[in-house]
Amino acid sequence: MTSQPAVLTVVAVPAGANFRITTLSPDQRQIVDPKALTGPYHGGIAVSASQVFCTGDAQTARFALSDLSGGAGLGRQYGALTSNLRTETVYSLGNGNSPIPAGGGTVTTLIEVDGQTGLLTTNTLTLSMPITVPSGSGIFAGYDQVVVHDGRRAWAVLLPSGVVVDLGELSMPEHQVCESWAFWGVAEYFDGAVYLVYVRDPTSIVRTGVPDGETELVATVANLSGLCSITFSISLNRWYFHRQNRSQFGGGAETLGYADATWEVPVSVLVSAPSYSASTAFGDALASTTMSLAFDGTNYWSASGGSYDGKRYARYDARGNPLATYSPGLDFRSVFSDSAGAIFGLQLNERTIFRQTAPGLFVSSGVALTGGRLDPHSALVLDASASEYVALADGVVSRWDANGVFITSTTLSGFGQILDEDSLPQSARVIAASGFWLTYNGHGILSAWDAAGRRVGRTTLLDAGSSFDSAYSLSFANGKVFVIDQEGGVWRGYDFGVKPIAPVIVVQPASQTLSSQTILAGANVTFRVAAYGFPLSYQWQFDGANLPGATNSILTLHNVLPASAGSYTVVLSNALGSVTSQPATLVVNEANSAPVLLPVGNQVAYVLTLLLVTNQVSDPDVPTEKMTFQLAPGGPLGARIITNSGVFIWKPSRGQASSSNFVTIIVTDDGVPPLSATNSFSVVVGDFLELSLGSTAVRAGQSGSVPVTMNSSAGITNVSFLLQAPDERLTDFAPQLLPPDVSGSAQPSAPNRSLIRYDAVGGQPLIGTRSLSSLAFTASSNQTSAFVPLNVSGLAAVQGNGVPVPRTISNDGRIAIVGTAPLLEALIRTNGQRTVILYGIPQMNYTLESTTSLADGVSWTIEWQGMLTNLFQVFDMGTTNQTIFYRAKE
Questions:
Q1: 784 in Cβ contact with 822 (< 8 Å)
Q2: CA distance to 449, 524, 667, 669, per residue, from 624 (Å)
């Protein structure tokens, strides 16, 4: 008699409700301090499609969801924020049309908050029954639901219906609390149950099942400090947080931030009964330790271990009737078949895979497993696609490709929580079927695990046995899970099947706030799709054509080129049909190219002479970009550059003579990202000689002198110049009061001109700032009063090596000749002080007058009257913005 089939079935809760966080990472984090807008920390957080809202003691504020920029206060405080994670609709818990305040109250509505402005809308969702939320409550934003924990019970508000579901009593485990009346987290739904995700303590975020209270880790972090408000953005794959005090994320006393996260719409593996009976049973033909069973499409094959000798291998027909036994000389730990029906085997403490070439004859397949984890007693099997080898060791599943190269390993989360499943040999035995890994605890309990290592279902296999051989014998053959009851006993097969679920796209492969991604050539870009269904096949397409190998929920394009721009879609399919995503448009801008600076030759500059160097730049980008020039640090003091034209400007000072200077020009474009180019050249500043004639005052008919000084950066042997002065006013120029190391001469060279020359005496060159002589002269008699310039031209100096000094600077002198009339000189000093100098004959009386206008009939004001005691007298006339005219008279 054959029993009723026992089927392990994959089914689903209504699409759109399932939601589970898979990772909360500290990576790619961004933070801001909201305190200036919100006031001190209060608690409360929610996200819309474009904004994140957080609440402080003063008010609630909003920030851009993408980068936390553009913070703005709302002018009111929402004490009970939450949201629908799927639609990204923000709500405030309300009583009627009024948001409930911090401190709690009776919730009868959810009042929608505008997701962009943060203002209350007129959209109010009435709950099917009121919920009382006292201080200490928890508020959890979910996927088409909001869950509230009132301190004793948990309540789910289903969206958008507003139906309230009593989830039962739950004593809330340890959790971080906010300074306000509540704490905030995320509500999940999978495996037919609600789970609450929240911050347990400064180092862990956990999920707790409702109402069983079972709690497990979601994320472990170094330091969350006082974090008590978290939420989730499905569209951006981020988690957002609002906390006080410093944490590993940085920041100060108050912090709003986000970091990377991932989530999924999990398929729930459920069982329709707590136990199953076998659908097939037949006796084992071997009388030694049973290892495993395989099916080649026609025959069953069983293997035993414990020795290399004796009958270790048996053949059966499709009904399980024994046909023959063999002695292959292998100490088997597993036998299995591929999709073509070939039989393979693995023996004790071995990594070489053997292949059956004739009944009972095994030879090396040429494949040996490298890397990964294998227990000496591990069973090796092929996955459902027959493209990967799979084995289990101490709760870790290892995978190898068809060539035996290690791919990766996955730790089964919670492995060992069921009695004896982590004991040998069952801890080294696994089978693969219909996209799941199955393990057996050796006492009748079969567990199913998904590809992420999560236990997604379990059931009891009746009469499967709990012997040592039962633990070894877990096998998948002919579409059935087989377990033997004892050595040489009965193989029992349990039907294993899956119920397909039609594919449904939950999140399209583009941000809900963006219709396309704009990137630069050479960068990487990732498209994601979140979907529901079982099983699911993915095929990404570019402009309608399939992309080879793009068969996962995530499509990553590396080093994209302009040719990568276009429309990307993904087709999800299974036996029940297919669905194609909305297009995600990729716009690729040409990668920015760095500007090119044309070379500039080395330069020669001279003291107090302006040096202009034009730097020319070309830009390979079309259209060309804006260029900004700057000088690199380390350039000469006083040098500058015009930022938009690139003209380098420098007038070397006297102290920079006889120096070599290194200049580096930097030009930066305004592309994305900005790129720069540099160009360097040297500037040599030559030596200089500066000669200065002084000034004096003298009466007509008398003699006088002016000082002659020099400043030279190089040692010189002689210096000469032409002095131009009117012969009718000044005569008899001659150097006097010469230093011992200087000789001088003056020779008329032309009307109104004299050649003045100085020579070094004794072989010592003249250098630095020093006096050369006094230059004597005679002022002609009977001339009018005048300011007579002493103009210097033709200045030349020769260095000790016979080379002329390359740069000469001359400063003219001046003589104030006082005849019969007085002279006035007006000056404005650097501090704005006005000064008037009166030149006249000593012992004569003069009057100094001023006026603000030279119009006829204007009156003059006497500023001073008196006798001059010298040739001149200086008067300080104060500061003013007026135009003032001065005159002097006897």
A1: no
A2: 57, 25, 14, 9
What are the tokens at 456?
């997604």
* DSSP type of residue 103: T
Which residue in the block uniquely carries the two structure tokens 């008899």?
732
- Burial letters 293-315, b for 16+ CB under 10 A, else e: bbbbeebbbbbbbeeeeebbbbb
DSSP secondary structure letters along 794-845: EEEEEETTSPBPSEEEEE-EEEEEE-SS-EEEEEE-TTS-EEEEEE--TT-E
Confidence label for 629 from pLDDT (cuts 50, 70 and 90):
very high
- Residue 253 to residues 4, 57, 65, 227, 239: CA-CA distances in angstroms? 65, 14, 21, 11, 20
562 close to 521: Cβ distance less than 8 angstroms: yes
**CB 819: neighbour CB atoms within 10 A?**
18
- The reported pLDDT for the residue numbered 9 is 36
- Other CB atoms closer than 10 Å to residue 269's CB: what's the count? 26
pLDDT class of 587 with cuts at 50, 70, 90: confident
| Nearest residue to 360 via CA among 308, 325, 310, 317 | 325
Residue whose pair of structure tokens reads 């200089």 in the numeric block: 688
Please report which helix (H) or strand (E) contains residue 37, including its range: helix 35-38
N residues, the chain: 890
Q: Cβ-count burial of 548 within 10 angstroms (0-12 exposed, 13-18 middle, 19+ buried)?
A: exposed
pLDDT given for residue 6 in this prediction: 38
Q: How far apart are CA 571 and CA 144, in angstroms?
A: 25
Residues 560 and 586: beta-carbon distance below 8 Å: yes
- Highest mean pLDDT out of 339-348, 509-518, 615-624: 339-348
CB neighbours of residue 618 within 10 Å: 11
